[in-house]
Structure to design on (664 residues):
C-alpha cells in the first residue's frame, strides 16, 4: 500500500488500475522477470532459510536438552556435525582437505578445520551470524535514519542544518574504524557480536537519514501535505502518516543493498577479531583462524570467503532488481 | 578569483565537521565503562600512587568538558597527545606510519582509475554485448567481495602457490637501496613494485568496481546527449566523438565518487595492511586498539577523519575547476 502510493506520486497520469500496476505483487513479478534479480532472490531466500533453520535448531536443542547441552538436531543427519564442539583427540582428523581431494572424505565435504570440526557444518551455521547481523543492524540504521531524516527534511532550517552536520561528521570517519572504536570502548575492552551489531547499526543511521531526507524534501512540497496542514493535522502525524510512507520505496531498495554492505563490514570486523568470537561459527572469524594456516591448508581460507561473496552478491542482485522494478523511469 | 572564494567557503564549511569528529572520538573514548586508567593498564598490578600520577598526567580527574577543551587546544597547536604505551608523541608515531598508507591508498586509486575508465567506456560503447556483460559481472564480484579476502586469495595464488610475488611488507622507494641490501635504484624500484602489486589490487578492486559502474552509466548517458547527436550529424568520426565529446563530460561524477570513496579506501587500508603486514596507519590503529592506547586511538581517528574531509574538499574544488557549470559559492 505504502509503496503503491509512493509510485503514483512519481508517475504521470496514473492509470485507473493503480493497485494492480504498482503494488507489491507487481513489484515482485517485475523482479521475477529479471533473470539476475531472480537468482539474487533465490540466493537470499536460501541463505535466509538456512540461517532460520540453524537458529531454530540450536535454540530448540538448548531448550530441550538444557542450556549447556552439547547437541544439535542437525548432527543427527549424516551430512552435519556439531558446529562448535571440538571432537576428542583421536576421533576427528584435523585439517582434512575437501572431498574432491584425494585425501578427502565425503563425510566432511569441505574438509575439517584445525580443531577437527566439520567445515561444511561451520560454513552453514556461519550464515546465521552474518545474516542476523546484516538484517538487525540494517534495521537499526533504517529505523533511526528514517526518524532523523524525516524530521530533518520536514522541518528544514536550523534543525536540518544541525542534523545534517552530525550526519556529515559520522560520514567522515571510515565505518570500519568508527565501529571498532565504538565496539572496543563501549564493551570496555571485551568486544563481541552484540556490540558489533549495535555499532554497525548506529553508524549507518546517518547514511539512511541522508537518503530519506532527500526524499522527504520532495514529498514535503506535495499538495496532500499542504492539504493535511490546512486541515489542522499535527506535524507529528503528518510525518508519520504521509511523509514517511511516501518516501519509503527508495529507502527500501537502499536497505536491501545495505544488508550486503553490512555483511561485508561485519566480516571485516570479525576477521580482525572484533565481531563474533570463537567458538561461534562466523565467516569472518573463520577467515581469521585460517589466516595462520595459509601454507598448510589453503581451502580453509577459500570457503568462508566464497560464502560471503555469494551471500552479498545475492543481496546486491536482488537489490538492483528491486531498484529497477520500483524505478518509474524504467517502468514506462 | 571566484575559485579562491569557493575554496575558502568549502574550508569554512568543513570546520563544524572537523570539530564534530573530535567530539565523537572524545565521547567514544570516554564512554568506556570503568576506570580508564585501569583499562589502560589492562589488569597489571600497580599501586594507587601510580594510578594517581597517571590520572594527573592526563588530567583525568577533571570534568569531561574541561578535558575536551584542553585537548582541542592542544590539537589546534598540532599536539595530538602522548601515547602511554609507546611513550612517544602521537604525531611522531603517525608521521612515521603515514608513508606506507598513503603509498598504498594512492596506488590503489591509480590501479582503480587505470582499469575502471577503459573498461567502463568499453562496456558503454558495446552495451548489452558479451563484453558489457563480462565487465558488469566483474564489477558485481568486485563490490560483493571483502577486500581482505581478495588479499588472501591473491597471496594464496601469487605468493604461496606460484611464488612470484612477496606476501608481506612493503619496500619504500624513499629509502636508500643499501638499507635493503639492493644493488641500486633500479632494483629498489623493481622491488617496490613487486611488493606493492598485491596489496594495491586487493585494496583497489572495490574502487575499480564502483568506478566502473559509474563510468559505464555516465558514458551511456553522455553518448545519448544532444551534442553527440549533433557531432554525429556533422559526420565527426565515432572515435573523435568518444574521445572529445562524450568522454570529458562523463568524467565529472567520477571525481566526486573518488572523494567520497576515500572513506571506504581508508577503512579498507586497515584490513589490507593487516593481511599484508604493512606498517601503516591502519596497523598502528589496530595495535593502538589492542593496547587501548586512548591518545593514539583518538589521534588516528581524528587524522583519518581529517584526511577524508580534506580529500572531499580537494575533489569538490577540482570539480568546480573543471566544470564551468558549477557556480562558485553555491551549496553542493
Amino acid at each position: 500500500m505504502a509503496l503503491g502510493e509512493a509510485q503514483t506520486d512519481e508517475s504521470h497520469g496514473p492509470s485507473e488500475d493503480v493497485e494492480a500496476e504498482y503494488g507489491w505483487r507487481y513489484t515482485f513479478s517485475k523482479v521475477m522477470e529479471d533473470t539476475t534479480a531472480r537468482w539474487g532472490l533465490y540466493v537470499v531466500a536460501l541463505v535466509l532459510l538456512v540461517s532460520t533453520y540453524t537458529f531454530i535448531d540450536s535454540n530448540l536443542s538448548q531448550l530441550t536438552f538444557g542450556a549447556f547441552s552439547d547437541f544439535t538436531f542437525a548432527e543427527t543427519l549424516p551430512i552435519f556435525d556439531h558446529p562448535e564442539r571440538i571432537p576428542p583427540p583421536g576421533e576427528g582428523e584435523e585439517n582434512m582437505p575437501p572431498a574432491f581431494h584425494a585425501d578427502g572424505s565425503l563425510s566432511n565435504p569441505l574438509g575439517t578445520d584445525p580443531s577437527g570440526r566439520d567445515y561444511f557444518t561451520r560454513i552453514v551455521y556461519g550464515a546465521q551470524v552474518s545474516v542476523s547481523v546484516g538484517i538487525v543492524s540494517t534495521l537499526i540504521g533504517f529505523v533511526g535514519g528514517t526518524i532523523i531524516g524525516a524530521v530533518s527534511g520536514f522541518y528544514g532550517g536550523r534543525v536540518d542544518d544541525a542534523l545534517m552536520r552530525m550526519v556529515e561528521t559520522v560520514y567522515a570517519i571510515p565505518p570500519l574504524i568508527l565501529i571498532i572504536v565504538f565496539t572496543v570502548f563501549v564493551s570496555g575492552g571485551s568486544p563481541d557480536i552484540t556490540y558489533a551489531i549495535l555499532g554497525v547499526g548506529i553508524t549507518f543511521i546517518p547514511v539512511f537519514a541522508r537518503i530519506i531526507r532527500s526524499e522527504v524534501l520532495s514529498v514535503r512540497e506535495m499538495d496532500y501535505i499542504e492539504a493535511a496542514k490546512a486541515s489542522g493535522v499535527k506535524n507529528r502525524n503528518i510525518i508519520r502518516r504521509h511523509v514517511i510512507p511516501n518516501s519509503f520505496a527508495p529507502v527500501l531498495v537502499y536497505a536491501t543493498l545495505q544488508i550486503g554492505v553490512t555483511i561485508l563490514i561485519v566480516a571485516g570486523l570479525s576477521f580482525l577479531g572484533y565481531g563474533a568470537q570463537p567458538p561461534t561459527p562466523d565467516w569472518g572469524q573463520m577467515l581469521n583462524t585460517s589466516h595462520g594456516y595459509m601454507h598448510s591448508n589453503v581451502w580453509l581460507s577459500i570457503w568462508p570467503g566464497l560464502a560471503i561473496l555469494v551471500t552479498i552478491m545475492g543481496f546486491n542482485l536482488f537489490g538492483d532488481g528491486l531498484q529497477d522494478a520500483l524505478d518509474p523511469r524504467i517502468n514506462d | 578569483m571566484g575559485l579562491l572564494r569557493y575554496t575558502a567557503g568549502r574550508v569554512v564549511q568543513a570546520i563544524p565537521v572537523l570539530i564534530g569528529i573530535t567530539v565523537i572520538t572524545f565521547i567514544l573514548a570516554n564512554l568506556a565503562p570503568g576506570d580508564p586508567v585501569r583499562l589502560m593498564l589492562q589488569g597489571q598490578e600497580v599501586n594507587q600512587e601510580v594510578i594517581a600520577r597517571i590520572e594527573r598526567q592526563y588530567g583525568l580527574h577533571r570534568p569531561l568538558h574541561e578535558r575536551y577543551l584542553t585537548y582541542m587546544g592542544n590539537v589546534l597547536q598540532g599536539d595530538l597527545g602522548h601515547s602511554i604505551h609507546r611513550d612517544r608523541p602521537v604525531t611522531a608515531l603517525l608521521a612515521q606510519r603515514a608513508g606506507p598508507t598513503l603509498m598504498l591508498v594512492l596506488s590503489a586509486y591509480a590501479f582503480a582509475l587505470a582499469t575502471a575508465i577503459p573498461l567502463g567506456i568499453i562496456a558503454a560503447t558495446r552495451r548489452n554485448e558479451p563484453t558489457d556483460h563480462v565487465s558488469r559481472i566483474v564489477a558485481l564480484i568486485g563490490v560483493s567481495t571483502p577486500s581482505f579476502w581478495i588479499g588472501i586469495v591473491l597471496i594464496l595464488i601469487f605468493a604461496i602457490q606460484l611464488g612470484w610475488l612477496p606476501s608481506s611488507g612493503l619496500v619504500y622507494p624513499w629509502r636508500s637501496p643499501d638499507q635493503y641490501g639492493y644493488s641500486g635504484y633500479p632494483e629498489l624500484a623493481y622491488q617496490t613494485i613487486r611488493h606493492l602489486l598485491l596489496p594495491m589490487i586487493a585494496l583497489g578492486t572495490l574502487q575499480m568496481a564502483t568506478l566502473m559502474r559509474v563510468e559505464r552509466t555516465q558514458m551511456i548517458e553522455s553518448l545519448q546527449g544532444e551534442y553527440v547527436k549533433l557531432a554525429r550529424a556533422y559526420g565527426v568520426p565515432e572515435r573523435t566523438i568518444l574521445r572529445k565529446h562524450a568522454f570529458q563530460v562523463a568524467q565529472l561524477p567520477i571525481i566526486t565518487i573518488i572523494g567520497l570513496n576515500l572513506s571506504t579506501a581508508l577503512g579498507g587500508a586497515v584490513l589490507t595492511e593487516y593481511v599484508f603486514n604493512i606498517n601503516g596507519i591502519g596497523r598502528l590503529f589496530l595495535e593502538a586498539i589492542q593496547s587501548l592506547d586512548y591518545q593514539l586511538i583518538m589521534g588516528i581517528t581524528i587524522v583519518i577523519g581529517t584526511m577524508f574531509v580534506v580529500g572531499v574538499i580537494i575533489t569538490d574544488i577540482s570539480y568546480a575547476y573543471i566544470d564551468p557549470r558549477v557556480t562558485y559559492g553555491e551549496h553542493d
Observations:
- Chain B touches chain A through 50 residues (CB under 8 Å).
- The first strand of chain B starts at residue 82 and ends at 83.
